[in-house]
Specification:
The structure holds two protein chains of two kinds. By secondary structure, chain A is mainly alpha-helical. In chain A, 75% of the residues lie in helices and 0% in strands. Chain A is built from nine helices and no strands. Chain B has one domain (2-203). In chain B, helix 1 (2-12) runs parallel beside helix 7 (124-154), helix 3 packs parallel to helix 6 (109-119) and helix 4 (68-90) packs across helix 5 (92-98). The chains are: A mainly alpha, B mainly alpha. Chains A and B meet through helix 2, helix 4, helix 7 and helix 9 of A and helix 2, helix 4 and helix 8 of B.
């Protein structure tokens, strides 16, 4: 139990996927203009991350490794599974909740090319987590991503009224803000005994 | 011929993936703790970009429009596997430093974007010229970021000491916040340069 807590807290605060592992920067910089969409994006990604952690666990340890294919087929099989998983999630959301589907809209298919998803799958294979640990890691990664997105969107909503120097307008000031956020997250290092 | 040169130059400045399009940020921020890492990452990405663009351009009349994205992904993932195994065999040290980000070239938006927007619509020579320009544009950009961070963070450039003994090393530049801040400030400088050149063109 304690170990699972460490995995979750570790991936939310200490090694936040966005702010210290640099995974999932594209949506973090691109879809963080409004708080509402940022949180929706975060929740959808958390869902996909959790499903991916289960799927890739079974593929890595029950198909690729027993047959000695891990070196050659890992990247290809992981990315295909993620792409079809995202498609599946899209269909399920469309059937069960059309309102949520409309809210997420174009962001859903983009999750396939989110580095965080493939990064999570590869990290599970590297760290050799068991099934429960993998799920915890997936949830933690998703929560960390959602937290970073929400923080950034909140700051950007306020920043609309700020007087930003002309040259730094747009992505530049967002990156510098992300740097300050990341600096704040450095304070969490050492929180969890490694 | 003129068209090919234009396609090649496009990626170097006008539509530079890093500074103008601002895509492919994950490797840009993650591996740039030294200039050498930038070159290695850039060349690996260029290889994947050139060969996947070539293959996608050759296959453009055979891939059905509905399943094009999965097809592109398989082509890209294959070349990434090639690069991953090649680097692990011949450059194990740099492969270890780049770590997770070598397999993650698959999800570098630049490659997918060029496949979707360019390579799948034009002839192979144009696709290769564009991919080469984009790849080298990405390479110079992340090498520059790597050089700035390396110089400020550890006082070296490509591993050679340049700042001398007395210089203070800003360790923060090597940590995650340094990546974001360096990138932000460089982007600001690029904005100033492009705005100035745009004004110059208007004046003449």
């Amino acid at each position: 139990m304690k170990e699972l807590f460490f995995i979750i807290a570790g991936s939310v605060l200490v090694n936040n996927f966005v702010l210290s592992r640099f995974l999932g920067e594209c949506p973090f910089l691109g879809v963080s203009r409004k708080l509402e969409t940022a949180i929706s994006m975060g929740i959808a990604t958390t869902f996909v991350l959790t499903m991916t952690s289960v799927a890739t666990y079974f593929i890595q340890f029950y198909i690729l490794e027993p047959f000695g294919l891990s070196r050659f087929l890992q990247i290809v099989s992981f990315i295909l599974v993620i792409a079809s998983l995202v498609q599946l999630v899209e269909m399920v959301i469309l059937k069960t909740s059309p309102a949520l589907y409309r809210a997420l809209g174009i962001y859903l298919p983009l999750i396939t090319t989110n580095c965080a998803v493939l990064g999570l799958a590869l990290l599970i294979a590297i760290k050799r987590y068991n099934l429960i640990q993998s799920i915890a890691f997936g949830i933690g990664a998703g929560l960390g991503f959602t937290l970073a997105m929400a923080l950034m969107a909140g700051i950007r909503e306020e920043m609309e009224f700020a007087d930003v120097p002309e040259a730094l307008q747009g992505a530049a000031i967002v990156l510098i803000t992300a740097g300050l956020l990341s600096m704040a997250f450095l304070g969490f290092s050492g929180l969890i005994p490694m | 011929m003129y068209q090919l040169v234009k396609d090649f130059l496009n990626g170097l400045w006008n539509e530079n993936p890093t500074f103008r399009m601002i895509i492919g940020m994950c490797p840009t921020l993650a591996v740039t703790t030294a200039a050498m890492n930038g070159i290695a990452m850039g060349l690996a990405t260029t290889f994947v970009l050139v060969f996947s663009s070539l293959l996608i351009s050759l296959l453009r009349n055979f891939i059905p429009a509905k399943v094009r994205i999965p097809c592109f992904i398989i082509v890209i993932a294959t070349f990434v596997t090639v690069v991953d195994l090649f680097m692990a065999a011949y450059f194990p040290a740099i492969h270890k430093i780049l770590g997770l980000f070598v397999p993650l070239i698959v999800v570098n938006c630049t490659i997918m974007a060029r496949a979707e927007a360019f390579a799948s619509k034009v002839t192979p020579p144009r696709a290769v010229a564009d991919a080469l320009g984009m790849g080298l544009g990405f390479t110079w950009a992340i090498t520059l970021i790597g050089a700035v961070r390396e110089l400020m963070g550890s006082g070296t450039l490509f591993g050679y000491h340049v700042l001398g003994e007395g210089a203070t090393h800003w360790v923060i530049m090597l940590l995650p916040p340094g990546a974001f801040i360096t990138m932000g400030i460089l982007l600001g400088i690029m904005n100033v340069i492009t705005r100035k050149s745009a004004r110059d063109i208007q004046c003449h």
